[in-house]
Design brief:
The chain is mostly beta strands. The protein is built from one helix and ten strands, in the order E-E-E-E-E-E-E-E-H-E-E. Strand 9 and strand 10 form a beta hairpin.
Length: about 140
């Protein structure tokens, strides 16, 4: 089942920001709330050499705690000049609220700041996520 999550997150004045993590607004997909987490200078696994990007299972109203979600998702950094986006597709189990999957080293800071790559246009970074498939699994105690 393909679901309509094609979220675009624009971060203005990217090079001037000093935040550790930037989170997108919540998106409701198939009754579940999702968000993106962007670490502009990387999380602890990136050692300040790469942007880190994650999809987070944020909240599920009325969802029993014994439910797991099998999700295929795409995360991408947009090349705003020539459409040579950096995109990664993955398949993961999201078991608990707050679970996140993504990449500590999604794109190097060197590539991100290289003007010819087109990732920062007028100092704006655009990140996208797409949930391609969700399968709900309920465990019976």
């Amino acid at each position: 089942m393909t679901l309509p999550m094609d979220t675009s997150l624009m971060i203005p004045a990217y090079l001037e920001q000093r935040f550790l993590c930037y989170e997108s607004p919540l998106q409701i997909i198939a009754g579940f709330k999702w968000k993106l987490a962007v670490y502009p200078y990387g999380d602890t696994g990136a050692n300040r050499t790469a942007l880190s990007l994650y999809l987070q299972f944020a909240e599920a109203s009325g969802v029993p705690p014994v439910r797991s979600l099998f999700v295929k998702h795409k995360l991408r950094i947009m090349d705003q000049i020539s459409s040579n986006h950096v995109e990664r597709t993955d398949v993961n189990w999201f078991i608990a609220l707050g679970d996140n999957w993504g990449y500590s080293n999604f794109v190097s800071l060197e590539n991100l700041r290289n003007a010819s790559k087109g990732f920062l246009l007028d100092d704006v970074l655009t990140v996208e996520a797409e949930i391609v498939f969700i399968s709900k699994v309920e465990c019976v105690p």
